[in-house]
Design a protein that fits this description.
This is AsnC family transcriptional regulator. The structure is a single chain. It is elongated and about 55 Å long. It starts with 8 loop residues before the first helix and ends in a 13-residue tail after the last strand. With 156 residues, the protein is an alpha+beta fold.
Length: 156
């Protein structure tokens, strides 16, 4: 697979290393890729400026934060018009229980990844947050029994 012209193997190595550990010090990153700290800093700045690196953050333990109950929810809207899509997207963006939301093609309109404390909290989320959004016609819930692979980053 050809690489985009604006990044090379060293850039890819930087992204792999930072994706695995975003707290990696510039000096250590520079040693691992074989460049000076100044050159490494400039590459990281360029990768960020060009949008290859979109941010840095910590991975948190959902169980310790009372968010261990994970469900996926199919959402079918009553109409597929721009205003209904916009209202739904705006409502979802304001809802902290929704970890991810994807508009999809197929038998329903959106797929949500929702993290809450337990089934009672999920029932409250449905009644207080999801079913109150204008345009929601139907939902289907899939409770996750085991997370086999999660948040592994992108292959670089």
């Amino acid at each position: 697979m050809p690489e985009p012209s604006s990044i090379d193997r060293t850039d890819r190595k930087i992204m792999r290393l930072l994706q695995a550990d975003g707290r990696l010090a510039t000096v250590e990153l520079a040693e691992r890729i074989g460049l000076s700290p100044t050159a490494t800093t400039e590459r990281v700045k360029r990768l960020t400026r060009e949008g290859f690196i979109t941010g840095f953050g910590a991975r948190l333990d959902a169980g310790k934060l009372d968010r261990a109950f994970l469900v996926f929810v199919e959402v079918l809207l009553d109409k597929t018009t721009p205003d209904v899509f916009d209202r739904f997207a705006d409502a979802v963006r304001r809802t902290p229980d929704v970890a991810e939301c994807h508009m999809v093609a197929g038998g329903f309109d959106y797929l949500l990844k929702v993290r809450v404390a337990d089934m009672a909290a999920y029932r409250n989320f449905l009644g207080d947050a999801l079913w109150t959004v204008p345009g929601v016609r139907e939902t289907r819930t899939y409770t996750v029994m085991e997370e086999v692979k999660a948040d592994q980053g992108l292959p670089v």
